[in-house]
Amino acid sequence: MIAADGIAMLELEAEGFGGRTTLYPTLIWDAESAVLIDTGMPGFLPKLLAAMQEAGVPPERLTALILTHQDLDHIGSAPDVIRSAPDTLQVYAHPLDKPYIEGELPLIKTTPAAMAPILSQLPEEARKQLQAQCENPPAAPIDSLLEDGQLLPYCGGIRVIHTPGHTEGHVSLYHEKSRTLIAADALVCADGTLRGPIAYNTLDMEAALQSLHKLLPYEIDRIICYHGGLCSEDARSQLLELTKLSPSAGADQQPAK
């Protein structure tokens, strides 16, 4: 866990979707409020609560839960978080992903057809577990809808940036006080190096790359990526270079010169 300025990048070890990885939800807090951004996979509540306690923020302090988009590794433990938090908790999502998160529509990327190539590569036990999660995904009620440019009144202000592409209702967030961009899956990070969106799980690559331009107006000191973690060295300069990527590029490609 990396924490500073009332913001912590939580670290959740995960296994699934083809291997072992680390997911990085974000926790932001001050004396009046505490905001959790994304929740990890189903069954991750104990890991999530332990990471929050390490930051000194128990679930009883949660004011808001922001779900950046519909993917299972982001909303998986949302129902458990909601049950652990006060009744006054506000749950936020973008309207375009709301029906998927609430269970009205099946999650786009975890349908049987979409998951077949991944499931076929897993050991039997892991395959059964992931298949069960995909066939019975969690559903969470959304209290408030996010709008592009909206300023949420928490922790000195959290700006909503609609960054479609990874999903249609994907959002990134900018914490004004710490000058931190919470990219969610709009970007990935590899050993501190910022990369573009991952092509194979991005629904609209052209839109995803265009969304990167919407991040440039912000004064960014560091970027938290849900996959890969923290980018703090020349973060804004790295982002600027990524806006030069062509629509056919992805996370493993470099900006055009």
Structure notes:
The chain has 257 residues and is of the alpha+beta class. The chain has one domain (2-242): Ribonuclease Z/Hydroxyacylglutathione hydrolase-like (Metallo-beta-lactamase, Chain A, 4-Layer Sandwich). Helix content is 24%, strand content 25%. A hairpin with a 4-residue loop joins strand 12 (171-175) and strand 13. The longest helix has 12 residues, at 124-135. Residues 251-257 have low confidence and may be disordered.
What are its keywords?
alpha+beta; 7-stranded mixed β-sheet; 6-stranded mixed β-sheet; 17 strands; disordered C terminus; Hydrolase; hydrolase activity; RibonucZ/Hydroxyglut_hydro
Topology:
Layout: E1 2-4, E2 7-9, E3 12-16, E4 19-23, E5 26-29, E6 34-37, H1 45-54, E7 64-66, H2 72-75, H3 78-84, E8 90-93, H4 98-101, H5 112-119, H6 124-135, E9 144-145, E10 151-152, E11 158-162, E12 171-175, E13 180-184, E14 188-190, E15 193-195, H7 205-212, E16 222-225, E17 229-231, H8 235-242
Parallel strand pairs: 6-7, 7-8, 8-9, 13-16
Antiparallel strand pairs: 1-2, 2-5, 3-4, 5-6, 10-11, 11-12, 12-13, 14-15, 16-17
Briefly, what is this?
This protein is α+β, with helices and mostly antiparallel strands and 257 residues long.
Give the neighbour order of strands across the main sheet.
1-2-5-6-7-8-9
* CATH fold-level topology: Metallo-beta-lactamase, Chain A
- In N-to-C order, the SSE pattern is EEEEEEHEHHEHHHEEEEEEEHEEH
- The DSSP helix count reads 8
Let me know the CATH homologous superfamily. Answer: Ribonuclease Z/Hydroxyacylglutathione hydrolase-like
User: Largest sheet at a glance?
Assistant: 7 strands, mixed
Which term fits the overall shape?
A: globular
The chain-level structural class is alpha+beta
User: Into how many domains do the coordinates divide?
Assistant: 1
Distance between the termini: 35 Å
Helix content: 10-25%
CATH level-two architecture: 4-Layer Sandwich
CATH class: Alpha Beta
